[in-house]
Write a structure and sequence with these properties.
about 170 residues, mainly beta, Tumour Suppressor Smad4, 4-stranded antiparallel sheet, globular, disordered N terminus, FHA domain-containing protein
């Protein structure tokens, strides 16, 4: 067995792992709270309407009929759009994926409000695409290589084969 130093470069042909998991993996959910009320809402459908209307997936009292939506997009990201008053983590102009809109790509810990309710997005780290290789703030461009592009997902939510070696037999 050959021992490796932590400073040794990987062998030629080495392919690093990624945080790309199956579409929707990581138990994506919203933690919902108001005063002493607390609950979790699983994001297990591709669109969640949040508000007081009877047909909404997440009904919350004292909100507009459709106050916000959370969409599971084709990048396997969860994106919130506010349709009424509320706060988000960032300035709407600062979110590079949705400039100028009241829309934000959610990352674990992202917070937004609808009426008197505070909602916080959570997704198990291995599936939260916000940091490459599950990395922490800082260093990924100087110390960690960039992650390969996200896999294509086919219509049934499974990863599409990336090469002949990935295809099922």
């Amino acid at each position: 067995m050959n021992a490796r130093h932590i400073d040794d470069r990987p062998d030629e042909g080495y392919t690093p792992g990624t945080t790309h998991a199956e579409r929707g993996a990581g138990n994506p959910r919203l933690r919902v709270r108001r005063d002493d009320e607390r609950t979790e809402f699983a994001l297990d459908v591709d669109e969640v309407r949040i508000g007081s209307a009877a047909g909404n997936e997440l009904r919350l009292a004292d909100t507009e009929p459709v106050h916000a939506t959370v969409v599971h997009d084709d990048r396997d990201e969860y994106v919130v759009t506010l349709h009424a008053d509320g706060e988000m983590n960032s300035n709407p102009d600062a979110d590079a994926t949705h400039p100028g809109e009241r829309t934000e790509t959610l990352r674990t810990g992202s917070r937004f409000t609808v009426g008197p309710w505070e909602l916080v997005f959570a997704r198990d780290e291995f599936a939260d695409h916000g940091r490459p290789y599950g990395g922490r703030l800082g260093g990924e461009y100087s110390d960690q290589p960039l992650q390969p592009p996200r896999p294509d997902y086919d219509g049934d939510g499974e990863r599409a084969p990336q090469s002949d070696s990935d295809a099922e037999v």
